[in-house]
Amino acid sequence: MGKVTGFLEIDRQVGKYQPASDRIRHFREFTIPMSDSEVKKQAARCMDCGIPFCHGPTGCPVHNQIPDWNDLVYNDNWDEAIRNLHSTNNFPEFTGRICPAPCEEACTLNLEDVPVSIKTVEQAIADKAYEKGFIIPQPALAKTGKNVAVIGSGPAGLAAAQQLGRAGHEVHVYERESRPGGLLRYGIPDFKMEKHFIDRRIAQMEGEGVTFFCGVNVGVDKPVQELIDTYDAVLYCGGAETPRPAGIPGAEFEGVHDAMHYLVQQNRRIGRENIESVAWPSDPIVASGKHVVVVGGGDTASDCVGTAFRQGAVKVTQLDIRPQPPEREDKLSVWPYWATKMRTSSSQAEGADREFQVATLEFIGENGSLTHVKCCEVDEVRKPIPGTDFFIRADLAFIAIGFSGPFENNIVKELSGSLDMRADRRGNRSVSADDKNYRTSVDKLYVAGDVRRGQSLVVWAIREGRQAAHAIDAAIMGSSVLPR
Questions:
Q1: What angle do CA 411, 426, 294 make, to 5 degrees?
Q2: Helix locations, 195-298, DSSP H
């Protein structure tokens, strides 16, 4: 695909960033777009490698046909490229910005550490499609007379709603917050993805007949049983929003917060909304002039780091209980799977101090307010090493160690006793349903996304939403032409 000898002739390039000293002064995206000619060159690097692991089960959860649209971009056929991309992914402008790109890990050229810049090309295709007016509403030619309710407007809910609407069903999306988007809008910082991209998709979906009801907390304001009784099918696409309990003494001190409280609040602030939301009530949390400690080593922790720098934090320290990973993985033992290796996010590169193989023992405070975080080094099984205790000055601390499952004070609570739940070995809970028909133990109720599989990537949520839409369409119509 692409240019036959392109991978030999053209070096890997990705979009460059604004300097850290400039980008921390604002909350906008800071990747400098590549020119069309540069994108075409990167698409030309895609090899005719025989077995394209990039879009197999190890590379892309939605099975994007990556070699095909790379070839189309190389041949300047942007119109067909976006049609091909949309055949597997409803929202490439989202994944092109925020997906960690397991496809690039699975690329054959990654055996030499120079994978095709798949994520860069994907974003370019979506942005070019909007620029040229290729993305317009695609309403169904005929209505089926069936109606479906979707609870939650995160990536799983949006993908399912769009697919079901295009199948001809009447689709109503119920969203707890004041605007659609779920995690995309309220969890992901604007410097990673600006929210007007969500607004454009919502406008397209409304043009296709999807109706959004915002400010409706199903299970609290409106019984879920009412929806089950009213619609032919109900799809629950809530997130895994309950913070995993850290069990760290001193968490009650002023200045200690769950990471999502902080991120949601700042996203609402930028969106000119009231910072106190339905799910995350909180006093203002601002890092300006403060020493900040972030507990956790994942994407949420990194988002806290970048947000704190943009708010004017004096110093940000990130604590990771895991050992520092190697700079380079052993390709022959892990490729084409996602490798554990040293990765530095754009936020971490803005000046964070990173501490590896460190446990957070206690939050220390005076007069009710946080002053320090007590830490120690740990061994390979995460057991504290005696005599290694140390203290880090902290005015703010954010706990970002993941999520244990959906909120259980709404739909789960209402259906308690009839809705089957399951727990993994870490105690994380989710709603039971398989990944074939997505049915729950409650008649007419389906479930997809993080609420079913646990916290995961946006691209996995899109996949589950699409597959659940196929399952629902087949169940209420007897068969389905929707892709799975």
A1: 90
A2: 196-207, 224-230, 259-270
Respond yes or no on whether the N-terminal peptide bond of residue 325 is cis (omega within 30° of 0): no
Residue ranges of the chain with pLDDT lower than 70? 1-2, 281
Q: Contact at 8 Å (CB) between 178 and 153?
A: no
- Residue 350 β-bridge partners: none
Q: Please provide the DSSP assignment of 13-56 as one string.
A: --PEEPPHHHHTT-SS--EEPPPHHHHHHHHHT----SS-GGGS
- Residue located via tokens 């991209």: 197
Residues 433-462 pLDDT 10s: 999 999 999 999 999 999 999 999 999 999
How far apart are alpha carbons 65 and 403 in whole angstroms? 32
Question: What does DSSP say about strands 233-236 and 396-399: parallel, antiparallel, or unpaired?
Answer: unpaired
**Unique residue bearing structure tokens 């879009």:** 55
Contact 217, 179 (CB under 8 A): no
In the 8-state DSSP scheme, what is residue 350?
A: G
User: Strand, coil or helix: what is 470?
Assistant: helix
Q: Is 433 helix (H, G, I), strand (E, B) or coil?
A: coil
